[in-house]
Design a protein that fits this description.
By secondary structure, this protein is of the alpha/beta class. It has helices at about 15-20, 25-35, 55-65, 85-90, 100-110, 110-120, 130-135, 175-180; strands at about 10-15, 40-45, 70, 90-95, 125-130, 135-140, 150-155, 160-165, 190, 195-200, 205-210, 215-225, 225-230, 235. It contains eight helices and 14 strands. The model has no long low-confidence stretch (mean pLDDT about 95).
Length: about 240
Amino acid sequence: MPVSSKDKQIVAMGGGGFSMEPDNPLLDQYILGLANTERPKVCFLPTASGDSDRYIVKFYSAFFKFPCQPSHLSLFNPPTLDLRGFILEQDIIYVGGGNTKNLVALWRDWGLDEFLKQAWQQGTILCGLSAGSLCWFEAGVSDYPGNNVLKPLTCLGFLQGSHCPHYDGEANRRPAYHQMIAEGLLEDGYAADDGVGLHFINGTLAKIVSSRPTAKAYRVQRQNDGVQETPLEPIYLGR
């Protein structure tokens, strides 16, 4: 599918990228390749981790190796008072994992959700893993209470439906997602194994890629007699 610089793109990763696969850059390279420039401006948002210094260092260590211009946005120590202008000048926004509930609350309080939506509508590529994947959907499975307790969480709604990251990485994710959809707590949606990227263009799932040869995505839908789970085979980027 041809993609223009004005198309609205989101790459939602169930897990993977520089923080989970430091020796496997396939997903990060795929995202960089979507930008319509040789040295894209890539801004890391570590909000869900409480702007962890260690996480930020990992980002720079990984992305300084790529042909790009990395930066980060900490809400605890913002680089500028003009957050809207800072966001709108980026080619790629990369959101890290952590506490999705805190991420959504902080972004809304700072108005960052609206700035991100405007950037997305103007062609900035949004991406992320875990919390940085879940946040773009209407809702999904989140462990925000801690202690491995999973609950449905309302998110930003840039993408329709629900989402479950870490589908194969955490044993309780799949049954929890099925139960929430069966009970009507979540709408139908997409699950992604670690290492899988769901590439949405203008709100439609256009491509599925993976950094792991056996990882998969799934369409999960409520049926009269329960839940139907349909495997979706990704394109393995290592081929």
